[in-house]
Write a structure and sequence with these properties.
Largest sheet of chain B: 5 strands, antiparallel
Largest sheet of chain A: 8 strands, antiparallel
Number of helices of chain B: 2
Radius of gyration of chain B: 25 Å
Strand content of chain A: 35-45%
Structural class of chain A: mainly beta
Strand content of chain B: 25-35%
Helix content of chain B: 25-40%
Distance between the termini of chain B: 63 Å
Number of domains of chain B: 2
Largest interface: A-B, 19 and 24 residues
Distance between the termini of chain A: 67 Å
Oligomer: heterodimer
Order of helices and strands of chain A: HEEHEEEEEE
Order of helices and strands of chain B: HHEEEEE
Number of strands of chain A: 8
Number of helices of chain A: 2
Shape of chain B: elongated
Number of domains of chain A: 1
């Protein structure tokens, strides 16, 4: 009695995925700031800010124009987006191309709140890392949503696979 | 002699056209820098007025505290700094110029904050 190998649906999917990956060209993604991100948001920046002492002008003179501003300048948000590297597997077929991959991203956001006199009341620094999926077909494509909204304080509802926050 | 003269003049015309063609080709590649090294030379704490700032840099990209604080986005090339209009993110922006004025519209403090590395 002969037993034929039956991999099942998952097995067939894994084989198909493996075949696709092996036949695709891996394109490494270099690390660096992404898109139009600012590059002057260091981890230790909040140590230079003091509640009740630092003014709105002090913050602007230290960090420059904010990425986001609250109503009546009640808060300033500063953010940066840094790609820590990743890979995209590109498949060329029939005169076109398709690709899929992932990239590890680091998002930083500093939200500084002020009282009506323009003195700092709070500084909330968030540093978050996550993997983002990238998919592209032909000239179109997209990537999974960012795990941290950098230009406003309330935008942290996305799923976060890996995070470390400091305050 | 006449044949030689014709050849000589034909050669000169060909050279002239070649030189013109090369000049046009190279001229198309050349770009003059937008930046000016003296763009921010007028800025002096305690002296520069809000009006002078408008005359030198144009409209600010942002105002804070009812206009007491202005910010300008600046790009930079081989010639120096040049003002940029506001757009989402900081693409092409090298520095953010922050100007803090007193109640009389005279510059009190300023900083040129580098937001992107060269």
């Amino acid at each position: 009695m002969r037993h034929s190998w039956n991999p099942g649906a998952y097995g067939r999917g894994a084989v198909l995925l493996l075949a696709l990956v092996l036949s695709a060209c891996p394109v490494p993604l270099p690390s660096g700031y992404r898109g139009a991100s600012r590059e002057n948001l260091d981890v230790g920046v909040s140590k230079q800010l003091k509640k009740g002492v630092t003014t709105r002008a002090d913050v602007l003179l230290l960090l420059g124009e904010p990425d986001g501003i609250g109503p009546d300048d009640a808060w300033f948000a500063y953010g940066s987006v840094y790609g820590r590297g990743g890979v995209v597997f590109v498949l060329f077929a029939g005169g076109g191309a398709a690709g899929a991959g992932g990239e590890k991203m680091e998002y930083r956001r500093l939200v500084i709140s002020f009282d009506p006199q323009g003195l700092m009341t709070d500084a909330d620094f968030v540093d978050r890392e996550c993997w983002e999926g990238i998919v592209g077909v032909g000239s179109g494509g997209g990537r999974s949503p960012p795990c941290l909204k950098i230009d406003a304080p309330n935008g942290t509802d996305a799923a976060v696979p890996e995070t470390h926050e400091s305050r | 002699m006449c044949w030689f003269g014709e050849q000589l003049s034909r050669l000169s015309v060909e050279r002239l056209f070649t030189a013109l063609f090369l000049a046009v080709l190279l001229g198309a590649c050349a770009t003059s820098p937008l930046g000016r090294s003296e763009l921010l030379g007028f800025i002096r704490d305690g002296q520069t007025t809000r009006e002078e700032t408008y005359l030198h840099l144009g409209e600010p990209t942002s105002f804070y505290e009812g206009g007491r604080i202005m910010s300008f986005r600046l790009g930079e090339d081989g010639g120096g700094y040049f003002p940029l209009e506001k757009s989402p993110g900081f693409s092409g922006v090298r520095s953010s110029l922050i100007l803090v004025f007193d109640e009389n519209g005279v510059l009190k403090r300023h900083a040129l904050v580098q937001v992107k590395a060269p």
